[in-house]
From TrEMBL:
It comes from the Bacteria. The keyword Lipoprotein does not apply. This is Levanase. Residues 327-466 form the Glycosyl hydrolase family 32 C-terminal domain. It comes from Acetobacter conturbans. Keywords: Glycosidase, Hydrolase. InterPro entries: ConA-like_dom_sf, Glyco_hydro_32, Glyco_hydro_32_C, Glyco_hydro_32_N, Glyco_hydro_beta-prop_sf. Residues 4-305 form the Glycosyl hydrolase family 32 N-terminal domain. Belongs to the glycosyl hydrolase 32 family.
Amino acid sequence: MSATPFLNDPQVPFLRNGLWHLYYLWNGDYPNSPGGTAWRHAVSPDLLNWWDQGVAIEKFTTSQGDIWSGTPVVDTYNTAGFGAGAVIALLTMPMTGDEGQSTARWVSTDGGYTFSFDRIVMTNPQAGTDSDSKDFRDPRLLWMTNERYWVMVLGEGNKIGFYRSANLADWTYMSGFMCDTLGLLECPSLFPMVQHDENGTAIGTKWILLCSANGYQTGFTTGAYYWTGSFDGTTFIADNQAGQWLDGGSDFYATAIWGPKATTSTPQITCYAIAWMNNWAYATLVTKAGYYGRMSKVRKLTLKTVSGRARLSNDFYTLTGSSSFAYTVAKKQTLTPLSPVKIPTVSRGSYRIDATLSAASGSWPSEIVVLLQSGAGTPIRLILSPQSGNVNLQRTQSGFTPATTDPAWASDRNAPLTFGQSISFSARINPDGLEIVFNQGALSLTSLVFPTTTAGAASITTSGGGVLRADIKLYRV
């Protein structure tokens, strides 16, 4: 998935003949004319290693403009009439007339390696009106297993629309979910999951409505936001109008969600997520650092009960039994303000740290500072505050800074973090970004950083009393 120059939104992957198929928006002409995006294709046997398959849908091959985000599905029951097992992609096209953003159907009969344009199946009903909502985009699809029809969710400005169809062509509007505090709602997903209580026992099913959105009104930037609730096949009702952020960082956008049992209404214990590691506040500016976008590591989602509320756990996806060489940095090592832990330099600047920190004497230090460096003198600062139950991520000194007055880059990222007797984290540090997961998925932070090319050492220091005990392993990536 490393093709350049510019990539963004991932589409929902599907599994066929033992391979996962992932498409993403790709602009091979960036920054030159004619612009626009194609669907580039990658495959993986394990959701960890990906191989580029080239462009599956070229841009500007029809009179309707280029192609934007959507969803490919395997039409197992031949609902669209192109044969059982055909791959049908519904996606947004901007159109060249007065139709506005519209939903197009593309068809593949070779397993998803090439697609042909079929037709426009739905145009924007607000096009040509005085409505403020000109957005009608990013269709996501869900197969209703018992009812045997398709549900489509669409981003429509500050509304998510729900539609149904028996043939992936003729769509009927069912209902809409409104949210006035998150700006433009993009890349929506609807999926059911099994909920577990605090002891890990299954206690029922919740439906989850997720979208990528703007959090400036709540002191956030952009990211993946979700609500838990119920869905009766027609209408989604949220448990609470105030939803939750899936990731606490600045660069986890256009998130695609899917499950091992495909995108169906069958409740799943585990779902997967992948996101575009970037932010439209500075996405074109960071190309000056040689960064043209990439995807996050695949995440494993489970639905847990936390303080009486259903909450998605967002952990790294790994294969059972997989392992790699680890260097033990600390084993039950005691940390005080005068005895920090120094983590050895990794020459190529890409590494992973797994750490468990515990309050050795029952009292936490007032502050724990973790410096994660893939460039000498350009650290990513993580400030853990046990007394306030907070983690703060700072990247203003982490190297290249895009020339923007938008606060999205410079603002600290703050997120709540529960400190019991111990906390754990797993951090993936690369020359262009950080992905970190705390407490096996209770919190994740994903943010871009562009440090110097000379590798630097990481460290953990404490202040304000309290004795910390640390177990730390270092993995070369």
